[in-house]
């Protein structure tokens, strides 16, 4: 019997993020088209005396190792439901940018949840795991499910959608952006205006299903309702978007609440070229070459 369980979890990009007005609870209703991309964190759960978290990877110094880490909270919530102690060490091998708008923290929450469920042999029904995910955060259910999905409500109600294969380059920015701060900036920028109810774009869903990169590129501009807010807080992102366009990307957008930017490219060869040009431009800290869709949280050992 294995003494530990390792789960691999994908990052996401939102090919559409339609944002409604702030609700009474402070959240925003969304029409959120999630796409999981082949950039993964791995969470390993090992039996221990108490609940501890460690992290390795390029940005690991920015990851909180206390109970504010979504992986730790996932273990606590699952253990509480099962009436057991969260006696587990969680090790995160981090590849997804931290506070980058790619659901890295959410991925670790979903990964820890599945890893602990397997380690503790709880066999929790999928529906219950998804409920715990929604309690952890708006993007966590999608991290568990992966693939491509429309998220409504605050993003936690998921409907799978069809998606062909696409290639992406991500430009990682220096420093993160706080998601609540970006939503607050959205509220400030839209104050006094009539914010329409968010709706998924039929043209975007059709382009996604077609697997036709040119069709998707045609509908991506303007699809992220948080982009103006992210650019307002981090004006330098406009330089990264311009550098990606100059490098030959088919389309570029801010990933979720940013500050990572996402570039749709035609194929793997073009991805390598665009990534090299972005790195040479000096407008980002690093790049990641990926494709979509990617599977959700999956046990790898
Ligand atoms: O759900 P999660 O904890 O990831 O959300 C982080 C913050 O992002 C919330 O506290 C809220 O400020 C903002 N948010 C929002 N509307 C959403 C999702 C998140 O305003 N649908």
TrEMBL record:
Residues 69-147 form the GHMP kinase N-terminal domain. It is an enzyme of class 2 (transferase). Catalyzes the phosphorylation of the position 2 hydroxy group of 4-diphosphocytidyl-2C-methyl-D-erythritol. Keywords: ATP-binding, Isoprene biosynthesis, Kinase, Nucleotide-binding, Transferase. One of its GO terms (molecular function) is 4-(cytidine 5'-diphospho)-2-C-methyl-D-erythritol kinase activity. This is 4-diphosphocytidyl-2-C-methyl-D-erythritol kinase. The gene is ispE. Gene3D superfamilies: 3.30.230.10, GHMP kinase, C-terminal domain. Pfam families: GHMP_kinases_C (PF08544), GHMP_kinases_N (PF00288). Residues 205-281 form the GHMP kinase C-terminal domain.
């Amino acid at each position: 019997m294995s003494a530990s369980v390792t789960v691999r979890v994908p990052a996401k990009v939102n090919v559409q993020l339609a944002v409604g007005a702030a609700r009474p609870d402070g959240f925003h209703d969304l029409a959120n088209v999630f796409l999981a991309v082949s950039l993964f964190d791995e969470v390993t759960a090992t039996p221990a005396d108490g609940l501890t978290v460690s992290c390795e990877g390029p940005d690991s110094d920015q990851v909180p190792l206390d109970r504010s880490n979504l992986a730790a909270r996932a273990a606590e919530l699952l253990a509480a439901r099962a009436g057991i102690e969260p006696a587990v060490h969680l090790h995160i091998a981090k590849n997804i940018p931290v506070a980058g708008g790619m659901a890295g923290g959410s991925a670790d929450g979903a990964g820890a949840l599945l890893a602990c469920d397997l380690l503790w042999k709880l066999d929790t029904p999928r529906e219950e795991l998804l409920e715990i995910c929604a309690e952890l955060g708006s993007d966590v259910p999608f991290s568990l499910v992966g693939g491509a999905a429309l998220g409504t409500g605050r993003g936690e109600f998921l409907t799978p959608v069809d998606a062909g294969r696409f290639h992406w380059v991500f430009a990682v920015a220096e420093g993160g952006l706080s998601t609540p701060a970006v939503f607050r900036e959205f509220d400030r920028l839209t104050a006094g205006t009539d914010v329409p109810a968010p709706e998924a774009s039929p043209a975007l869903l059709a382009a996604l299903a077609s697997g036709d990169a040119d069709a998707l590129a045609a509908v991506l501009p303007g699809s992220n309702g948080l982009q103006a807010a992210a650019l307002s807080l981090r004006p330098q992102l406009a330089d990264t978007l311009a550098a990606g366009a100059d490098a030959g990307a088919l389309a570029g957008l801010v990933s979720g609440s940013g500050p990572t930017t996402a570039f749709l490219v035609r194929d793997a060869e073009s991805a390598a070229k665009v990534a090299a040009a972005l790195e040479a431009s000096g407008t980002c800290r690093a790049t990641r070459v990926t494709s979509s869709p990617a599977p959700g949280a999956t046990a790898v050992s």
